[in-house]
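Hey L., structure's done. Input below.
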Amino acid sequence: GLSWKQLHTKLFDILVSDIEGAAIENEMVELLGLDHLEFIQQLLTNRCVIVDTLLNDTSSTVQSKLKQKQVLPSKQHQHVAPPIASQVTVQSKEEKELQKQKRKDEKKEEKIRVRMEKELQGSQDDHVTYLKSHGFDPELLRMEREMALEDASKRPIFSSGATRIVDP
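Output:
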């Protein structure tokens, strides 16, 4: 994390800046974290008082920081888009339980689907076993079917010996 001096400097820079509204709140939250929302609200509520107090301070560090701000306008806040923070989802206990139940149901459905696929595969294996037990060779039947399809594809669709019937 940041040292106290760095934290103080960054807070001062944010409070003295021209940033307003949600943008300054976002910067403060990024710097201090979501755990300190009340503190951030107090800082923003009392921003004018804090800045006035710091400006009236005779400390050389505060005066030098202020002079730098006035002489060289801050470019860091003019054209820089705020960094994208990770999304936080707040859920109640009930919502958490519902999500947990949904995941359980999805896992259960997946197990059922896998079991059904295994049973289907098993029934196909049973079919092959049944054919073999009755004297049929499934591989031989498949080869004969493929040969019949190949022969049929080579035969002409229309035979030349067909007779034409003409109605008078």
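Residues 93-133 form the longest helix (41 residues). The two ends are 103 Å apart (CA to CA).

-- N.
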